[in-house]
Amino acid sequence: MFFVAVATIALLYSGVSLIGKLLSEPNDISTVPPPKGFASDTPAVPLGTHDDGAAPSTRNGPQQSSSTTTTTPLITASTTSANHAGWSIDYLPPIMNSMVQYHKGSSLVANSLEAMRPPAEYHGLTCPQLVQRHMTEYAQVASRIDFTRPPKYKMPWYFHDPYALCGRYLLTHHQRDFQQDVAHPPQLLHRVAVRQPAQGGETSDSQMVVARVAAGEWSNGDVYVEHCGQCAEVVSVGESAALKCAGDVLMLARLISDQTVVSADVQALVVPANGRPYHPLRFFIRQPGEYVLEVTLVHVNGSSSNVSWPRSMGVIGIRASDHNKKSFKYNLACDLQRHVYGSPLKVLALGRGAAIENVNSLNLKPLCNVHNYNQTIGSGHWVRVPYKTRCEAFQSGSICSGDPTWLTDACGFNNELVWSPDSCRMRVYSPPLGPQQSCLKRGRSGFLLFVGDSVAREYVQNCRLFDLRSSKLHCIFANIALEGQHYSLDYAKAVVKAMIDSLKQNRPGVLATNLGIHHMIGKSSTEQWIEFIDVFIAAWKAEAFQILPVGTDQWLLEKAVWLGPPTIHYARHGMGHQRAVLWDEIAWKKLEPLGFIRLYAIAPTLSRTEATWDGLHYASYKGKVQSPWRNRAAPVLLWNGGVSNMLFNVLLNLICDPIPT
Asked: How far apart are CA 628 and CA 60, in angstroms?
């Protein structure tokens, strides 16, 4: 019966209208206004403009917590080395560098990074000297771009092979195009700074500045992002100048060792009475050891409600045609250009660190469920559990429960890393076996119906790897999403009707939906998103849907899940991370009173930019995105991507495990 229902939706809404249009994995990435003489229908937008009074950025960083997990990390040198401009690109530990190591030979040419100097050199410059150095590098990078010629692989015009113009150079290029003043110094120029850098000899790497911090404590502001651009010269004029210096530039930061990955928060701009404006970096390192800190430029104008203004600062990976064959392309030059000056740097975490919660079973965190998982939104980290090691055999089971082997995928997007929320231990289910108890309290079999776009489809792709008969669930998918560029109230009502009809025809036990958010977010306004959700809620109430059984034989939903968006590291223009955070909160506040539960996906994906093949999607299809294979030991699945696998595990923890009464 459910096959007929889904097929009916497809017939009604795919050929006649755009309502049921099947989502293809997007490969038309962000567009930006070109330089003068290059045709475009996109209006130029001044950098740092806030047309809606929104805060300069909407980030989600770690929440304060004292829970801990990992063993002492040591950065392990890579087996191969590629030096450009005198500094090595092999700073990532083995668990993170499979993408870099595999693709660097094909994505770099000998002089593609010759303008860039080792990160430590930028720390020794004054701000005026850094500005001069930046303009020299920018001129060298920009001179290689022929903006009148279509780019290879149908990329945006700034993503060229083998050369690229991204990140810190693209930010200046935007400014020059917007201001139409090629001689003007850069308004926005950033550098990672350390108040008391460590002395030489504390690490073997002379290419990075070293910062010392205390393990087991929150950072005290000794590491920060300094403003060296022109805006900093006039910031004393007043608050408006300070906002201009903030620039609505989204930076994301993370710390990496060979045992853990944790996000760091680039906090709001601080304007001191004396000195330059800066953003403090706030992070919590649980265990002593050696880490790498990355700070990268991600989006500009992302807080604007004008959908034509946000810009991505670089496209790193994409599925593209090469010799009439679809294959994965990774642009390492663009990836490295996204670093602010002085990034990456080494961080030495000193001291005893926080106590590891593995003395005995009484000290273990509780297993995750819908209540304790959502208690600490944004708080957690990725922990390395060695390949083919069960959770119970690692740190006395303090990280997780089950077998995480399948999270190491053949594509190399995830290597031995498991998401560990601060508040609970995740049950890691390994296909083909899923939960061995019923996920439905009424004891009958039922459907787990996913409704939404291609991101919602990734959960279905993972679900189909499992045999869920023991849990009394069968996964089905209704690919229904509103195309934002065609938004109207009547169109919104038609899409909602298709969603409600799918619910009524399939009668699922569990509904999981993202309401097609990613098909709206790049082209629709926030006001239209609110209107669309209100239309959905009105239709939901009109049908008198009830969640959880009430002791009757009539069909009732047992659970309804809001699938929040993952972090958008780079994507189509307008589809920025800040808007995704805002829309996620808007949807959740409206759906929670209806009885929905929440899968918060931003926290696990915030620090995993290398785990996505196009900045948004985390599951890649065999033979289209990730071939040839990078992790030869891992099994090749139809859909591969460890972070995507982990998110589906989170969903199973929320809907299939006992909830305390």
From this structure: 35
DSSP reduced 3-state for 656: coil
Coil/strand/helix, residue 95: coil
> Which stretches within 551-620 are classed as H helix?
577-591, 602-605
Q: Is the pLDDT of residue 268 over 80?
A: yes
Whether residue 352 contacts residue 288, with contact meaning beta carbons closer than 8 Å, is answered with yes
Question: How far from chain centre, in Å, is Cα 420?
Answer: 16
Residue 517 shares a structural domain with residue 644: yes
Phi, psi of 14 (to 5 degrees): -95, -40
Q: For the residues 351-379, what does the mean pLDDT come to?
A: 69
Domain harbouring 454, CATH code: 3.40.50.1110
Largest CA distance in the chain: 75
CA 626 from chain center: how many Å? 19
The position carrying tokens 């944004």 is: 378
* Tokens matching residue 259: 């045992």
pLDDT value, residue 113 = 85
The contacts of residue 50 (CB under 8 Å, 6+ apart) are: 56, 243, 248, 303, 304
Q: In this structure, which amino acid lies at residue 84?
A: H
Reported as a single tens digit per residue, the pLDDT across 370-428 is 888 876 666 899 999 999 999 999 998 999 999 999 999 888 889 999 999 998 999 99
Which of 315, 331, 350 finishes a domain?
350
Mean pLDDT of 179-192: 72
Give strand pairing partners of 193: 224
Residue 471 tokens, joined: 């849990």
Residue (of 577, 583, 580, 584) closest to 251 by Cα position: 577
User: 350, 372, 405: which is the final residue of a domain?
Assistant: 350
Beta-bridge partner residues of 350? 214
Beta-strand pair 278-282/260-266: antiparallel
Contact 87, 218 (CB under 8 A): no
pLDDT-above-70 percentage for the chain: 70
Q: How far apart are CA 299 and CA 572, in angstroms?
A: 11
14 shares its domain with 120: no
Q: Using the structure block, give the residue that is written with the tokens 């071939």.
A: 627
Residues 484, 336 share a domain: no
| 335, part of any domain | yes
Span 630-653, pLDDT tens digits: 777 888 888 888 999 999 999 999
* C-alpha–C-alpha distance, residues 116 and 269, integer Å: 27
pLDDT greater at residue 7 or residue 465: 465
3-class DSSP assignment, residue 93:
coil
DSSP state letter for 164: -
Model confidence at 81, in pLDDT bands (50, 70, 90)?
A: very low
Poorest-pLDDT segment among 221-235, 336-350, 414-428: 221-235
Per-residue pLDDT tens over the stretch 609-620: 989 988 999 988
Q: Is the pLDDT of residue 153 over 90?
A: no
Domain span at 283: 112-350
Instruction: Tell me the pLDDT band of 593, cut-offs 50, 70 and 90.
Output: very high
Q: What is the DSSP string of 253-322?
A: EEEE-SSEEEEEEE---B--SSS--EEEEE-B--S-EEEEEEEEEEEESTT-S-TTS-EES---EEEEEE
Q: Which two tokens stand for residue 282?
A: 């706030």
Please indicate, yes or no, if residue 91 is contained in any of the structural domains: no
Tally of structural domains, the chain:
2
Residues 447 and 341 both lie in one domain? no
Tell me which H or E stretch contains 193.
strand 190-194
